[in-house]
């Protein structure tokens, strides 16, 4: 069963799509609908559906602005609109499909099959990531496996300087001025890293202990090899010094 969320400023459009989904497919369950995109963003911060049906033309925020504000995109997005000129832009925003209103039942059926395939790929990718992570831990390898943007990235542990958190996103700051953004909370990232090399010095930061250049005690900061200054939380200072 696919859990779906619908965002559309027109209640009649929501009612029509809901009717189509419930009468023409047993694979979809509508868990929430929104006429206010701001309310939908709040909901999606802590709830991850299997698919999102999103209208483009809304008065307070258009659909593309909505997608840019999402903190988690680990689900299929389907654009719904009465205008066909948004098709290319929808693809650029990584929507898996584009439905023109009034929505045709056959088109909707095809879209549901695309959603099922999308979620199957995500599920298999996550399973592979967990499998490789377990293998790496057992073999004590020098790499970790990250699932991002539909691909698996194998990171050398020593290439990681530190990781910063932004809600549901985490950013890996790497050597050679490189960055990698993943849709994982910092707690989840922390469980992937070798404990003897990394330490969470702040709610928003994990550092590679081997990449620390200085610890400024009076200011409560560490300076990384990249010259980034990372704050040390007061309640974690004692445990951090023991690690050093």
Biggest sheet record: 5 strands, parallel
* Uncertain stretches: none
Could you name the CATH topology of the largest domain?
Rossmann fold
Number of domains: 2
SSE pattern: EHEHEHEHEHEEEEEHEEEEEH
Strand content: 25-35%
User: What gap, in angstroms, lies between the N and C termini?
Assistant: 49 Å
Dominant shape: elongated
Q: Please give the CATH class of the largest domain.
A: Alpha Beta
Number of helices: 7
CATH architecture of the largest domain: 3-Layer(aba) Sandwich
| The named CATH superfamily of the largest domain | Response regulator
Task: Let me know the average pLDDT.
Answer: 85
Helix content: 25-40%
Radius of gyration: 22 Å
Q: How would you concisely characterize the structure shown here?
A:
The chain has 244 residues and is of the alpha/beta class. The chain has 7 helices and 15 strands. 35% of the residues lie in helices and 32% in strands.
Blueprint of the fold:
Blueprint: E1 2-7, H1 11-24, E2 28-34, H2 37-46, E3 51-55, H3 63-69, E4 76-81, H4 87-92, E5 97-100, H5 105-139, E6 143-148, E7 151-156, E8 160-166, E9 169-174, E10 179-182, H6 186-192, E11 198-202, E12 205-208, E13 212-216, E14 221-224, E15 229-231, H7 237-243
Parallel strand pairs: 1-2, 1-3, 3-4, 4-5
Antiparallel strand pairs: 6-7, 8-9, 8-12, 9-10, 11-12, 13-14, 14-15
């Amino acid at each position: 069963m696919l859990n779906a969320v619908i965002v559309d400023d027109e209640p009649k459009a929501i009612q029509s799509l809901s009717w189509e989904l419930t009468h023409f497919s047993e694979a979809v369950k509508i868990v929430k609908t929104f006429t206010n995109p701001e309310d939908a963003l709040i909901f999606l911060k802590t709830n991850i559906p299997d698919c999102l049906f999103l209208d483009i033309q809304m008065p307070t925020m258009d659909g593309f602005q909505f997608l840019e504000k999402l903190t988690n995109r680990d689900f299929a997005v389907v654009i719904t609109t009465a205008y066909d000129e948004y098709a290319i832009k929808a693809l650029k925003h990584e929507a898996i499909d584009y439905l023109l209103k009034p929505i045709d039942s056959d088109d909707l059926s095809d879209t549901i099959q695309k959603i099922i395939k999308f979620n199957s790929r995500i599920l298999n990718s996550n399973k592979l990531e967990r499998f490789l992570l377990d293998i790496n831990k057992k073999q004590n390898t020098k790499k970790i496996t990250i699932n991002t943007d539909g691909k698996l990235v194998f990171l050398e542990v020593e290439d990681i300087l530190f990781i910063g958190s932004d809600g549901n996103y985490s950013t890996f700051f790497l050597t050679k001025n490189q960055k990698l953004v993943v849709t994982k909370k910092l707690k989840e990232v922390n469980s992937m890293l070798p404990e003897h090399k990394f330490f969470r010095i702040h709610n928003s930061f994990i550092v590679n202990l081997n990449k620390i250049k200085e610890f400024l005690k009076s200011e409560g900061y560490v300076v990384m090899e990249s010259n980034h200054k990372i704050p040390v939380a007061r309640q974690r200072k004692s445990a951090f010094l023991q690690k050093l």
